[in-house]
Amino acid sequence: MEEKRKVVQRQGKDSIEEDDPEKYRQALRNTLTKLFADVEMKKKKLEERDQSERKRQKEQEGAEQDKVKRQKEWKQDWDAKRNDRVDSWRTFQQKGKKRKMSGGLKPPKLKQEKRL
Known about the structure:
Blueprint: H1 2-11, H2 21-80, H3 82-98
């Protein structure tokens, strides 16, 4: 209202619309309605943001739990199959000692280069 009063005084008028009590109440009501609507919108935005943050955290926690569970299962499988791996390696080593390679290693055959 102060700004309106200054503008009106510069224009050379005496009073503004809000000087009338009925118009003042109406302007006050409109202003308060707008303020309450703005506050309500801000509350809704904060609630939505908070809700999305909680949802994201739940999803992240679920993903972390799944990851831990998969790692635990993998480790159990790895430990359970350890004897199979050790036995396989031992049989491989025993077979390797019995069998000897004759002639050693051979280098690969050379292929001639073709030019166009």
